[in-house]
Amino acid sequence: xxxxxxxxxxxxxxxxxxxxxxxxxxxxxxxxxxxxxxxxxxxxxxxxxxxxxxxxxxxxxxxxxxx
Length: 67
Known about the structure:
By secondary structure, the protein is an all-alpha fold.
């Protein structure tokens, strides 16, 4: 009862086609994919604001490497 079978997925795809049209679905998929990529990228990056001094940690690391 809690699982999606092939018929459930086909019904969902047909409903999406009716709502958005075939030309909008690739744009919708690309937008969602880009949003997920940006979210994953933001989660992997270090914090950009240091609460104590307001200086970016990434800039500090670059300065330390140059020294």
